[in-house]
Amino acid sequence: MVNYRYLGNSGFKVSEITYGNWVTHASQVENEAAIATVHAALDAGITTFDTADTYANTGAEVVLGEALKGQRRESLEIFTKVYFPTGPMGPNDTGLSRKHIMDSVNGSLTRLGTDYIDLYQAHRFDYETPLEETFQAFADLVRQGKVLYIGVSEWTAEQLREGHALAKDLGIQLISNQPQYSMLWRAIEGKVVPASEELGISQIVWSPMAQGVLSGKYLPGQPLPAGSRATDEKSGADFIKRLLRDEVLTAVQKLKPIAQEAGLTMPQLAIAWVLQNPNVAAALVGASRPEQLADTVKASGVTLDADTLAAIDTALAGVVEDDPEATYETSPKARLV
């Protein structure tokens, strides 16, 4: 079964492997298959589920709500996000203004079929809205009981500090950040993680398998596997392209004997690796088929020894992105509509 970790400086626990439905629900897979994967996640001991209103333009929340119908609500931890455009994408259908937050949270609650959201996350930093306006809206939602905790996604160290201070002044808790993090993408280690450790903020990391590249299924100089994420425009094919360079794929193949020596599959090694970071509370995983989760959850509770970690660093030398400045390029400087 899956282990649990505290989220930030709070008493709130989440499953350290969390189910995310970014490119799967209402997009990559049919609804019946998506619901089956959620049920497989529950059977495997995953109780924490992450989505966003923008995924499939609100469709992913609908599917997740349907999949969780009938479950004991108190035994689940449901996360969603607000920022990116939704609906007809009018001038107030995006960002972190009070109007968009209030409209969005009510829509998310309806689609998810719940009275409250455990963790409500600012999906990016909004340069066009005063941060005080955003956090006052978040504080009001907490006081109304619609939201229990506040998180953010892909914020810089400085943004985390400013948001944390505002949250504290308003008497609410900012307890998490959701950044990209994997063996190949370590940009948060330089500034974001140290600031988060100081503030009592955990990371909920997305793409721990680097969009599937760390599974080892993409081979240098070979055609892309049929049906893979790299061939599906609805599943983030553009996003994965930057990782499909031969030098990256060659380095990733060097991880196979390391995984075998550790008694792990390649996906298990990738997920176990991010969970070695004590500031990481959870690794987000998705699935297009229920059986994928049976393999994934075995990464929970795994400890990688120092020799294994050193071998990973040696194998990937030269292809890792670890520049802290990369964290400053994640939030759009202007809204997308």
From TrEMBL:
A single GO CC term, please? Answer: cytosol
Q: Any idea which GO molecular function terms this record carries?
A: oxidoreductase activity
Q: Which InterPro entries match?
A: K_chnl_volt-dep_bsu_KCNAB-rel, NAD(P)_OxRdtase_dom_sf, NADP_OxRdtase_dom
Q: Any keyword NADP?
A: yes
Gene3D superfamilies reported for this sequence: NADP-dependent oxidoreductase domain
Keyword flag NADP? yes
> Which SUPFAM superfamilies does this one have?
NAD(P)-linked oxidoreductase (SSF51430)
NADP-dependent oxidoreductase domain location:
17-315
Keyword terms, alphabetized:
NADP, Oxidoreductase
Give the family per the record. Belongs to the shaker potassium channel beta subunit family.
Q: Which PANTHER family match?
A: HYPERKINETIC, ISOFORM M (PTHR43150:SF2)
What is the protein name for this chain?
Aldo/keto reductase family protein
